[in-house]
Amino acid sequence: MNDWVRVCATSELLPGESAVAWDGDTPILVVNLDGEFYAVEDKCTHEDFELSAGAIDGGQVECTLHGARFDLRTGEALCPPAYSPVPRFPVKLEGGAVWTRDDR
Ligand code: FES
User: Fold this and answer.
1) What is the pLDDT of residues 60-99, one digit of tens each?
2) Which end of the chain has less Cβ packing within 10 Å, N or C?
3) CATH topology assigned to domain 5-96
């Protein structure tokens, strides 16, 4: 299992904001939704496009390539053309920073 990866200072990820961190080869999209932190793989399960390029609204992210939407809290695919959920990763707040890791 990999070590935790520092995403940014907690003060740099305010409600409604997002950031991308890399754990090895895995891009991870970390979001602050109303003070709760969530992380998913930054890769659409339709054609691997980066989800971080899309708009985040109402706890969902929309892939800019073909419009699939994912629930950022659960990873669930909400509409075609994506059908598989996006992997979720843990987030912790420690030492004034946000941390995540690919725990697969
Ligand atoms: S790559 Fe995301 S919807 Fe097609």
Assistant:
1) 999 999 999 999 999 999 999 999 999 999 999 999 999 9
2) N
3) Rieske Iron-sulfur Protein (2.102.10)
